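re the bet — no i am not wrong, look at it urself. input seq straight from the record:
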Amino acid sequence: MKMEERDKTYKTKLCMRGKKMTQGEFSERVNKVIVDGERRIKKKQELLDESDKLPFGYVGLRPNWPRQNDGIARFFHQNLNGISPDADLAEFEALMHQLLYNAPDFLSFDELNINTRQFGIEQKLREKLKEIDRMAKTNFAEGAEGTGLDFHFYHPGGRMQVIMGTLSGQTNECGQDKLGRWAWVKLKGKNSKTLTVYTAYQVCKGQTHKNPQAKTVAAQERRALLKINHPLAMKSRTAMLTDLQEALKKEKMKGSTIRILMDANTPHDAEDIKTFHRTTCTSCLAIAAITGKLPRTYNLGADNTCIDMAFGCDRVLEALVGLQYKPFYSNGLYDHRELIVDLNIQKLLGGACA
């Protein structure tokens, strides 16, 4: 589908109440999206191997409402492979309601694949989140070329962080990599304690040498790196990890505790990831929490490897309470496993989540 045709389709799908649809028509459309989604999820689940239908790791049960002051902060990470604008973002809204059953305090999403700066998309996403949690705060990172290209609705890449509940009140500052490769939020606790949480994405292997004029995330990064004369412009995967390492070093020099949620598009035991751990003094939290081989986390991947990971420095490792990879398609049509990490926030920040 050409970009113009895809954009026209997106505009047609993004129908608001009182504009292109009556209330009844809108409700019918929303129901259709949700019912169709549930049907497709069930079909995908039927095709899974038995091991892909099981969770890996353990996290404790938490009542969503009323929330308990248990001293634990729950972090949730997933690659969405795109947010559909259909029926006023109905699929995204359904996902948020479904995630409430997991009682999260921090949501981390990769690959929004939608231009949040166009047609009020970012504002609509904020409104959906406020309906669920009025205290929610958000942090977005655009793709490498931002809105400079004619992406309209569809825009490959992008990250979103959502801080919920009382944890949002501990948000000190937030920001993004200038090329959109990661977003970060700094949480402030007692006695000047801070925890900086990164949502990062490394492009797939093999994509960096394809059509240089394409609008893929890899092509965007390559052009952006060339534009600023980056010494590793022709090796965008290496450039991403190298630049993230430098950002982490600066943050650690400020005394902050480091925590990273990442779709690395490379196995957890690959040499570049091992080097990243050595350089940044971080560890893969899943290795500490799960006995035996880690599960594959991308259902469409060519190999059975874990590419969605959580990293942390020693203080995070000491505060680790639980970690779990959910079964594929637990909460939607997303072909990456969801990752849940529980941390003792009382130990990290001297405060609790309620």
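see?? The chain has ten helices and 13 strands. told u. also Residues 1-19 have pLDDT under 50 and may be disordered. so pay up
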